[in-house]
Every structure is written in C-alpha cells, then in structure tokens.
Design brief:
The complex is a heterodimer of chains A (115) and B (110). Chain A is mostly beta strands and 115 residues long. Chain A is 0% helix and 49% strand. In chain A, strands 2, 4, 5, 6, 9, 10 and 11 form a 7-stranded mixed sheet that branches. Chain A is globular and about 45 Å long. Chain B has 110 residues and is mainly β. Chain B starts with a strand and ends with a strand. The chains are: A mainly beta (115), B mainly beta (110). At the A-B interface, β4, β5, β9 and β10 of A face β5, β9 and β10 of B.
Chain lengths: 115, 110
C-alpha cells in the first residue's frame, strides 16, 4: 500500500494564481483532513471530510476549497493565492468504526510558496 | 473549537537525560494521540491513550493520560539524538474534527 500520497511536493505560485493540491489514500479510510503548518507552529485544520460527498470547514478555511467525490481522493483548491498561504500542507486520513486506534496517517507534505 | 496547549514550547537536553512534555486540553478528551515529526517531514504516530489513568510505552517513550485533569504527559527516558524533533499531541472532538497541540520542539545534544 502507498498510504497517503500528496502531490506536488513543492510549488511556487505568484500572487493571484490558483492551484490544486492532490491527496489520495489507498487504505479505504472514511475520514480525510487537510492541515497547514507554518514555521515553528503546530498544525491548523483547514477542511475535513467524513466520507465521499461530505466536507466541512475546520479552523482556517478561508481562501481554500475542497471536494470529496470518491473515498480515495480529497483535493485542496487554493483560489487567488496570497503570501499568507505560504506554508507546508499536510493531508491525512483515518478509519473510524473498527477496532483500531483511529490514528491519522499522513502524507509527506506539500511545501507551497506564494510570491 | 478544542484547544490543546503543550509545554514546554521547546526543550534542549543533553543526551542521556530524561524529559517530560505536557499536553492540556480545554475540553474533555475522548482519546489523546501523540505524534512525532522530524524536521521538514511528515508526522509519525507514536501512541494513543483513551482511558483515564492509561499508560503506554514505545521503546523509551512513555505516555500517560489523566482524564480528570484533561492532561497527558510524554516522558522520554535516557534521551538520544534520534529522539530529536517536534512532538505533537492530537485529539478528536465530538464534531469529528481532529486538532493538534501547539507542538514541542526537542533538541538532544550529543
């Protein structure tokens, strides 16, 4: 299993440009999350999804959009990029409902710079 | 929203020393997760605590959950340079959101 795969790993955007961060998981997890991590800080929740077709806002959703058309994919869309969106973005997934611990599995992160 | 406050914010210790990181929740904990992040990399799951008074160990790392105080502590015995990184506590709330603490940066000096 590949786990959680994020692309791209690095990207530089100009102010006002748009882009999509891709996230795919092959573990059949029902929950998926997007976080951003600024230097020296913890993770802030942007959006999350509890299943295909269901998404909801986290702590810092402004300037972002998501969709969850399939169980596997949870892309994050940045519209009109701003310097404040310069950050490292992490996608994560978890399975709730079984006997496991329900821990989050993380992708390797996508480092985005907006100039 | 649920807030998780970690202390200390950063820690520098000599190799071989013991250390403790604390995580305090503003709301009732239904489960507390500990993660480690190496600088510039993704997060690695360490352990999960669910029951009050529960204690778990992974190699030289021990975590405890004090449910009444809504706190958890992570203790590292005889620290090694491989323990260096950022330690994060995380928890889910009743709304299915999963929050992380402010993080503790650990440096171990050989």
């Amino acid at each position: 299993n590949a786990g959680v795969t994020q692309t791209p790993k690095f990207r530089i955007l100009k102010i006002g440009q748009s882009m999509t961060l891709q996230c795919t998981q092959d573990m059949n997890h029902n929950y998926m999350y997007w976080y951003r991590q600024d230097p020296g800080m913890g993770l802030k929740l942007i959006y999350y999804s509890v299943g295909a077709g269901i998404t909801d806002k986290g702590e810092v959703p402004n300037g972002y959009n998501v969709s969850r058309s399939t169980t596997e994919d949870f892309p994050l869309r940045l519209e009109l990029a701003a310097p404040s969106q310069t950050s490292v973005y992490f996608c994560a997934s978890r399975y709730l409902g079984g006997a496991g611990t329900g821990e989050l599995f993380f992708g390797e992160g996508s480092r985005l710079t907006v100039l | 929203s649920q807030e998780l406050e970690q202390s200390p914010q950063s820690l520098i210790v000599q190799e071989g020393k013991n250390l403790t990181i604390n995580c305090t929740s503003s709301k009732t904990l239904y489960g507390l997760y500990w993660y480690k992040q190496k600088y510039g990399e993704g997060l690695i799951f360490l352990m999960m605590l669910q029951k009050g008074g529960e204690e778990k160990s992974h190699e030289k790392i021990t975590a405890k959950l004090d449910e009444k105080k809504q706190q958890s502590s992570l203790h590292i015995t005889a620290s090694q340079p491989s323990h260096a990184g950022i330690y994060l506590c995380g928890a889910a709330n009743t709304g299915n959101q999963f929050y992380f603490g402010t993080g503790t940066s650990l440096t171990v000096i050989p």
